[in-house]
Amino acid sequence: MLQDRTHKLGVVGWIALAVFLCAGLGQAADSSDDSNVTIDLPEVPALVANATSSLPEMEANDQENATSSLPEMEANDQENATESVAETESETATSTQAATPPDEVSVGASDVTTADGVNATVPETVPETVSETVPETVSETVPETVSETVPETVSETVPETVPETVPETVPEIVPETVSETVEVEVGEALTATHEVCLNGCSYTTIQAAVDAAVDGDLVEVGSGTYNENVIVDKRITLRGVDTGEGAAVVNAQGNGSGIVLQAGGAVLEGLYVTNAGPYPSAGIEVVSSDNIIAGCSIWNSGWWGIYLKGASSNNTVTETIISNSVNDGIMVYRAPGNRFIENTVANNGDNGIQILESENSVVERSIIGNNTNSGISVEDSGNAVVRGNVISYNNLGIHLSASAIDRVGPNRFIGNGQEMAVA
């Protein structure tokens, strides 16, 4: 079909050339010699007219033939293109140098397009695109991305971050914080010490030192007798110290209580308290909770040796001697939950220990002897614990009134008029 159409176009060209030559000859004959050659010009236009009239019919036939055969050509071209792609890929994989350069392919495509645009585009363009794009993309993109990105990220990031962060944070922050905090807390805990002595100290009376102290301070009282009544209204430690001349003595001189614990959490130790006033005074009077009385001696009180009252609770009296009180050695009145452990309570005018209306009291491992009435008297007080004591030479060893007996004993009784009475 391509040859037929080329042939028809050639005929038209020859007719146009003949018309051009005839026109040139006619002009030449007119200019040189009007009588030499006579040319029948009307015949040439007739040929041109015939050729022109037949040209639309030829082009219509050509277009019809081209349209009808185009699907067959495209099918053949695509088939040929597919075979060309396969051959091109195999040739590209075997040797890169054997591939047709892009310039040569583009020139071939241009020539065919000039002859016939429809047939030339399909077979030439497909092989060119496939042969160039596929090999380049596969060979260049994939190897570069894998080889560059993965090794660099793993090798650079991991080694640098881990070693730098861990060594700097641990050694610097932890030691500094711990050392500073401990020093501050210890500095606050180690509070001031106020020394009291008869001569040569900052304070010559116990009460003056207590007034100057703050919670947590220590007041140390040296050897000697201090004729005064002391009120402890702060959470301090009041300690008697033998500085070479014997005990530190608080002498109430028969007027009021020798020491009154008004503030909870105080510690009273190593003091000798004597000559407290008559009823309702005591050698040591406790009207607060959570106090400790340890290693003290209370002698010759005008009424009670130690008096706990007013709902004072959770107090502990230990390793203390209470003797020669006019009434009870220890009186506990409506003060629950107090403990009396390893004390000596003797030679008192009424009971050694009197517990009235005070729940959960504990008397353990104490020596209670030679008291006028009962060694231990528990009245209207539930859950009292009385055990491990040596009770001797009292008129009545243990007296229980309206109180349970299930937590009383074992105790050791020596020389009492009666060991136990339950009412």
SSE diagram, text form:
Layout: H1 2-32, H2 43-94, H3 102-115, H4 117-189, E1 193-196, H5 206-212, E2 218-221, E3 224-227, E4 230-232, E5 237-240, E6 248-251, E7 259-261, E8 267-269, E9 271-274, E10 282-286, E11 292-294, E12 297-299, E13 304-308, E14 316-318, E15 321-323, E16 330-333, E17 339-341, E18 344-346, E19 353-356, E20 362-364, E21 367-369, E22 374-379, E23 385-387, E24 390-392, E25 396-401, E26 412-414, E27 420-422
Parallel strand pairs: 1-2, 2-5, 3-6, 4-7, 5-8, 6-9, 7-10, 8-11, 9-12, 10-13, 11-14, 12-15, 13-16, 14-17, 15-18, 16-19, 17-20, 18-21, 19-22, 20-23, 21-24, 22-25, 24-26, 25-27
Helix pairs in contact: 1-2, 2-4, 3-4
Main sheet record: 9 strands, parallel
The radius of gyration computed from the alpha-carbon positions, rounded to a whole number of angstroms, is 64 Å
- Helical segment tally? 5
CATH third-level topology of the largest domain: Pectate Lyase C-like
Gross morphology is elongated
Integer average pLDDT = 73
Structural class: alpha/beta
Number of domains: 2
The CATH architecture designation of the largest domain is 3 Solenoid
Instruction: Output the strand order for the largest sheet.
Output: 1-2-5-8-11-14-17-20-23
Low-confidence stretches: 28-188
Query: Helical amount among residues, as a percent range?
Result: 40-55%
CATH class of the largest domain: Mainly Beta
Give the CATH superfamily of the largest domain. Answer: Single-stranded right-handed beta-helix, Pectin lyase-like
N/C terminus separation: 143 Å
Q: How many β-strand stretches?
A: 27
Give the DSSP E fraction (strand runs of 2 or more residues): 15-25%
Keywords: Repeat, Ubl conjugation pathway
Pfam families: Beta_helix
Protein name: Right-handed parallel beta-helix repeat-containing protein
Pathway: Protein modification; protein ubiquitination
